[in-house]
Design brief:
Helices cover 37% and strands 28% of the residues. The chain contains 1 helix and 3 strands, in the order E-E-E-H. It has a 3-stranded antiparallel sheet, with no helix packed on it. Strand 2 and strand 3 form a beta hairpin.
Length: 71
Amino acid sequence: MLALTRKKGESIVVNNNIEISILDIRGEQVKIGISAPKEVPIYRKEVHQQIQKENEAAVSLESVNVLENIL
């Protein structure tokens, strides 16, 4: 993991087309802004993890249905 120190108003650039900016800092909360192409999905980590769990469950269910059809 790369750890960087940024102040309010400063940014970092990822892969030449994604910019992450520090918009505000209040106590322990940091507000960030992300500028990226529309085709780049951006999720909070907990949302991304839930999507992955649901996708895994769907694949497992689909596999069971395929096996039932074979038998």
